[in-house]
Amino acid sequence: MAEGRFTNPVVAALAGIRDFFARQQLADRYSDRDRADGKTVLVTGANSGLGFALAVEFARRGARVIMAGRSKIPEAGERVVRLAGSDLVEMRYLDLSRIDTIHLFTEELQRGGTTIDIALFNAATALPGSRKTASGQDEMFLVNYLSNVILSRLLITKGILKPGDPDTRSKVLFISSDSHRGSTGIDYGEFGRYFEYGVSKGISNYSYFKLVLNTYATELSRRINGDGIKMSINVICPGPVHSNIVKEAPWLLRMVLKGIFWIIFKSPARAARPVVYMALSEDYKDTTNAYLHMFNPKKMDPKVYDRAEGKKLWDRSMQLLREIDPQYSVYGAAGPS
Ligand SMILES: NC(=O)c1ccc[n+]([C@@H]2O[C@H](COP(=O)([O-])OP(=O)(O)OC[C@H]3O[C@@H](n4cnc5c(N)ncnc54)[C@H](OP(=O)(O)O)[C@@H]3O)[C@@H](O)[C@H]2O)c1
User: What angle do CA 111, 112, 116 make, to 5 degrees?
Assistant: First the structure.
């Protein structure tokens, strides 16, 4: 059975203390002068927490921001307009637990002739247990992992994310968590299969699915880029964020976690800084498959870089999509390789 780094939510939250006090190697490279004028930035899960703060920050820096989410439409977008003093902000409906909405979302972008310069795959959920989606998968598996595969593949296939030279190519950032480290390898017996579980396995799955996501990001970068860089595909952990991520936890646990968040976790605006840095700084213009843990460049868990594992995950993900997505043919036969 797959196991993530943590099974106890309080222990997981307390691990944030170390991050809170960790040295931030590249923090002084963060600059208000890194602008995003003329760029189109997509943020998933943009109505709340880190995603909302990122929407504000990129709008402030001159970008056209597409806020994708399933709730608080249009209120969250209107707040970003007010806070950033920019009207280049739009909100689009996207429920990552429903595959059909991912297709509709990308079709709409394609119809509008939109291309995206920076895509921030930020949305994720932490549920207290299993929940079955309309397409039959576990909700955390779909939202935290598979929807990112679907969305990235559709955006690439439709030419919304584009390869190119350093000034024109799209940048993709997967928002992950350093808690992926130490998770077990990918369990293909469980992969995409729905079964019931409770809080401990839910916590464990959160970090485990981040390991799966990072493995996919690494394989995607390999397939798109080969030996050069055609598209910049990186991974970042923002560190502990005082956000709404525990909103579905049982009441008492939620109160405890919120207390910990309040005392030691960073505000979303602060947690957004390394993400903005990685997306806009010249330092990361020519990189792919890099990882930042806040402002600290690191390697991810070694399992993430295993080529055979990356290929296997890719093949199994596509096989699963063939089985569950009636619109599978839209991805294109060869995929983005
Ligand atoms: N909080 C931390 O300490 C921490 C640490 C490391 C990494 N991260 C990562 O940071 C990212 C942002 O999380 P956060 O802390 O800012 O939590 P958050 O406030 O709960 O934000 C998560 C976002 O994902 C969205 N989302 C969840 N399920 C969705 C679905 N089915 N369809 C579309 N959107 C959905 C949420 O929308 P709704 O409001 O509609 O639910 C919300 O906008 C996540 O990838 C998380 O794993 C967080």
Answer: 110
pTM of the predicted structure, to 2 decimals: 0.96
Strand partners, 45: none
pLDDT in tens, 39-72: 999 999 999 999 999 999 999 999 999 999 999 9
As a whole number of angstroms, the distance between CA 206 and CA 248 comes to 13
- Choose the residue to mutate in 79, 94, 183, 245 for probing ligand 1, maximizing ligand atoms within 8 Å of C-beta: 245
For 270-283, how does the pLDDT look when each residue is reduced to its tens digit (9 = 90+)?
Answer: 999 999 999 999 99
Mean per-residue pLDDT, 197-209: 93
Whole-number Å distance between alpha carbons of 205 and 180: 10
Q: Which of 50, 148, 263, 300 should be mutated for ligand 1, with most atoms under 8 A from CB?
A: 50
Residues flanking ligand 1, CB < 6 Å? 45, 47-51, 69-71, 94-97, 122-125, 143, 175, 177, 237-238, 240-241, 243-245, 265
Using the mean position of ligand 1's atoms as its centre, give its distance from the Cα of residue 48 in Å. 7
Dihedrals φ, ψ of 234, to 5°? -125, 170
Taking every pair of Cα atoms in the chain, the longest distance, rounded to a whole number of angstroms, is 51
Q: What is the pLDDT of residue 336?
A: 44
pLDDT at 12 (0 to 100): 79
